[in-house]
Amino acid sequence: MRFTFRKIAYCVLGVYCLITCYTGFLVLKRRAYASYSAQDQEQFLLSKIKSLSEIADDADWNPWGEQFAEEGMVVRHHAAPEILWGPVERPLGKRSPLVSHDNNTLQDDLVVEVWGKAAIGLYLWEHIFQAELEERLNGVWSYGSKKIGAITFRFRTGPGVIPSKVPKDTENVLLVLNGREASKVDFAKMWLDFLPSLPRLRNAAVVLLGNEQCRNSWLLPYLKLPGSRLRSVFLVYDSPLVDNVQFYQWPLGVATYRDFPKVESSHLPLSLRRKYTCNFLGTVYRNSSRETLLSVVHNSRYANSSFVKPRMEWLPKETDETKGDYLHALQQSDLTLSPVGQNSECYRIYEAMAYGSVPVIEDVMTPGLCGASPASKLFPLRILKELEAPVIYLKDWKTLPKILEAEARMSHEEKVERRKRLVKWYENFKTVLRDRMVKVLENRFFNINR
């Protein structure tokens, strides 16, 4: 093909027209964006952040990651705005109390960053630490600050909390992670592998939702690595690793991933008569002790005064109806029946105590490595037995009728006093766990003994 001068000129002119049109499009787009209100621009920025924040924990265990998991996103590193870690500037008179407290922290204060990358982080912060949390950017991240003992804790959680935006001057970290299954372990390892990249890091500890069969040996190399900054692990479930030197027992707590509320004990109507003798709402697995439980209750003379609502398939999320039924049952029952699931410890135990409903707990060790050590006679549910929780234990649900008969002989006044003792014990339990953790961190991080 012969290229004449005229053809070349037409080509140049065509390219020039395309560039001109594209430039005009960009100018018009920028002007249109500039015409948006400040609120519209903030929403535009928020949507952009959400499209990039793809490393959230999954919906079953991290309530802040649901919108990303539903879009089929995968764990990946992406850039996030600097605002996620830096101070938030606000007009005078409108500054958040959390920010004011943070800015007033003295230079010589002992500061521990708490990064919540599992749903149990909310139980730690809001229930154990009794601290407030301020949501920012419509939930892309949340922040709180509280001084307990000698330490100022700064808590950050949400999908916007990602390794690429961690401040490089961080010295002390408490990571809240999920090690329940293989995919969660991979996510937890990503954070632990990231810690050595922090040039000023001096100390680290982990709050870990352990595996329900207590298969947590993957964590041991991180404690033994030369130069490791990992000092302590607060571990959920009755693992024989717990030695109160490096590993400390930690409670499962309530299901914050199901939006279980923070119950104010002072507002509970503990003196009112309750409608039900006992309750059980949960999944019934084939050939499990839960089938025995249902049969016993159904054939007892207390069947009509019991709130029993089983389902045959486990659901990771609650509907408004199922959540309402469950909270109603806890509030209106003197006893809450708590059979074993994948582990002897379950959320239902702590949720019942929060409402003053005495847990009737199946005291049976589940399969796996939990309690494999003969060193303690407290397995299973060591943390509850050690602190003498005012609950009822049984080994076989066939003995439940005797418990229900004893319940029928109690006066209303006796039940009210029992509720008060239970709620008071649970509040003290959370305080004891908080003080234990703070004491361990003061000692292991800052060499403070008290």
Account of the protein in words:
The chain is an alpha/beta fold and 450 residues long. The chain folds into two domains: 66-250, Rossmann fold (3-Layer(aba) Sandwich), CATH 3.40.50; 260-429, Rossmann fold (3-Layer(aba) Sandwich). Helices cover 36% and strands 17% of the residues. It contains 13 helices and 13 strands. The protein has helices spanning 5-34, 38-52, 66-69, 97-103, 120-128, 182-194, 220-224, 289-299, 320-331, 347-354, 382-386, 400-409, 412-446; strands at residues 110-116, 134-136, 141-148, 151-157, 172-178, 203-209, 230-236, 247-250, 276-283, 306-311, 333-338, 358-362, 392-394. The chain has an eight-stranded mixed beta sheet, sandwiched between helices. It has a five-stranded parallel beta sheet with strand order 10-9-11-12-13, with helices on both faces. Strand 9, helix 8 (289-299) and strand 10 form a beta-alpha-beta unit. The longest helix has 35 residues, at 412-446. 35% of the residues are buried. Mean pLDDT is 83; it is low at 48-107.
Q: CATH first level of the largest domain: which class?
A: Alpha Beta
In the sheet with the most strands, the strands line up as: 2-3-4-1-5-6-7-8
- CATH topology name of the largest domain, in short, is Rossmann fold
| Overall residue-averaged pLDDT value | 83
Structural class estimated from helices and strands: alpha/beta
DSSP summary: helix tally: 13
Q: How large, in whole angstroms, is the Cα Rg?
A: 27 Å
Question: How many domain regions?
Answer: 2
- Main sheet specs: 8 strands, mixed
CATH architecture annotation name of the largest domain: 3-Layer(aba) Sandwich
Number of strands: 13
General form: globular
